[in-house]
C-alpha cells in the first residue's frame, strides 16, 4: 500500500472501514513519507515500532464503520506475522486524520457482532479516561457525557436496533470517549486496554471482545486499591450507592450489564484458539 501510494503520487488517503483499515491508512502515509518503506518494515520486526519521519504526511480522510474510536486517534496499531508474531505500531500527532465522516448508513451495514465488539472498545475508553493520571476537567466532562450516551445506546445496539437515536448515542458517545483518550499531550488508556491488547493481538477475538472479558476484573482490582474515578463512573453510568464500596460494586455491575447486552464474551475460555498454556506469554507481553 505504501509503495502504491508513493508511486501514484496521490494527494491523500481515504480510509473506509473499522479500526484495522484506518490504522493501515495511517501507517501507509508514514511509510510512504519515509522513501524506503521496506527499511521501516524491517525495523518494525525488531523494535515493534514504526518511526514516523519528519516533515509533512499525506492527509488521511477517515470514514469509520465501527465504534472503536480509531478514527479520532494519533495511534496506529499493527501486527506482523512475517517472522513470528510482532505487535506494535506508530504514535504521532500527525497521524490524526485531517477529516472525519460519520455516516449512519455505514454503521448500519456493519455485521452485528463486529459492531457490538467495537462498541465495547469505545466504551472502555470512556471508562478509563475517568481514572487516568493524565485526565483533565475537560476529559472528565467528555467521559461522563460519553458514558451517559453509551450506557443508553449500547444495550439497544446489542438488541439489534439501528434507529437514528441508537446510532446517534453510539457514535457521539464514542467520539466523546475518544476525544479524551487520544490527545497530543497524553493518552488516558490504562489497565483494561493493556490487558485487552495483549489478549486480542494474535488470537481470534476482536479487541473489544477482549476488553469485555477484562473490564470487570480490572475495575474490581483498581477499586480494591484506589478510588479509580468511581464517582465519575457512577455519574456517567447512572448508578447510585450509599458508600464508596457500594458505588464500586454498582459500577462493575453496570459494566457487566452493558457487556452482556452487547452479547460479548465473559471468559478467556471463550476464545477458541487460546489455551491455558498461552497465558504466561500474554502476561509477559502485557
Structure write-up:
The protein is mainly α and 286 residues long. The chain has 2 domains: 2-100, 3-Layer(aba) Sandwich (Rossmann fold), CATH 3.40.50.1970; 111-285, Dehydroquinate synthase-like, alpha domain (Up-down Bundle), CATH 1.20.1090.10. Helices cover 56% and strands 10% of the residues. A hairpin with a 5-residue loop joins strand 3 and strand 4. The radius of gyration is 19 Å and the shape is globular.
In a nutshell, what does this entry contain?
This protein is mainly α and 286 residues long. The protein is built from 12 helices and 7 strands.
How do the strands and helices of this protein lay out in sequence?
Layout: H1 2-8, E1 13-17, H2 19-34, H3 37-47, E2 60-64, E3 75-80, E4 86-91, E5 99-100, H4 104-108, H5 112-129, H6 137-158, H7 164-181, E6 182-183, E7 186-187, H8 191-200, H9 207-225, H10 230-237, H11 244-261, H12 279-285
Helix pairs in contact: 1-2, 2-3, 5-6, 5-7, 5-9, 6-7, 6-10, 6-11, 8-9, 9-11, 10-11
Amino acid at each position: 500500500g505504501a509503495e502504491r501510494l508513493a508511486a501514484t503520487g496521490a494527494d491523500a488517503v481515504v480510509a473506509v472501514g473499522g479500526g484495522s483499515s484506518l490504522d493501515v491508512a495511517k501507517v501507509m502515509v508514514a511509510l510512504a513519507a519515509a522513501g524506503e518503506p521496506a527499511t521501516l518494515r524491517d525495523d518494525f520486526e525488531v523494535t515493534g515500532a514504526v518511526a514516523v519521519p519528519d516533515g509533512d504526511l499525506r492527509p488521511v480522510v477517515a470514514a469509520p464503520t465501527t465504534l472503536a474510536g480509531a478514527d479520532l486517534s494519533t495511534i496506529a496499531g499493527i501486527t506482523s506475522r512475517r517472522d513470528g508474531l510482532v505487535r506494535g505500531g506508530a504514535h504521532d500527532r500527525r497521524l490524526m486524520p485531517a477529516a472525519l465522516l460519520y455516516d449512519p448508513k455505514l454503521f448500519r451495514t456493519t455485521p452485528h457482532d463486529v459492531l457490538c465488539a467495537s462498541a465495547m472498545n469505545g466504551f472502555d475508553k470512556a471508562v478509563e479516561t475517568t481514572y487516568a493520571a493524565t485526565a483533565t476537567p475537560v476529559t472528565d466532562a467528555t467521559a461522563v457525557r460519553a458514558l451517559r450516551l453509551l450506557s443508553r445506546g449500547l444495550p439497544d445496539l446489542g438488541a439489534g436496533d439501528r434507529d437514528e437515536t441508537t446510532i446517534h448515542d453510539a457514535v457521539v458517545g464514542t467520539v466523546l470517549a475518544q476525544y479524551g483518550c487520544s490527545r497530543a499531550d497524553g493518552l488516558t488508556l490504562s489497565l483494561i486496554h493493556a490487558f485487552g491488547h495483549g489478549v486480542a493481538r494474535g488470537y481470534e477475538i476482536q479487541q473489544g471482545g477482549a476488553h469485555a472479558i477484562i473490564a470487570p476484573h480490572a475495575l474490581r482490582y483498581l477499586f480494591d486499591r484506589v478510588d479509580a474515578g468511581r464517582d465519575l463512573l457512577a455519574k456517567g453510568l447512572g448508578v447510585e450507592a450509599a458508600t464508596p464500596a457500594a458505588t464500586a460494586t454498582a459500577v462493575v455491575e453496570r459494566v457487566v450489564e452493558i457487556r452482556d447486552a452487547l452479547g460479548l464474551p465473559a471468559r478467556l475460555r471463550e476464545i477458541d484458539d487460546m489455551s491455558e498454556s498461552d497465558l504466561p506469554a500474554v502476561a509477559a507481553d502485557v
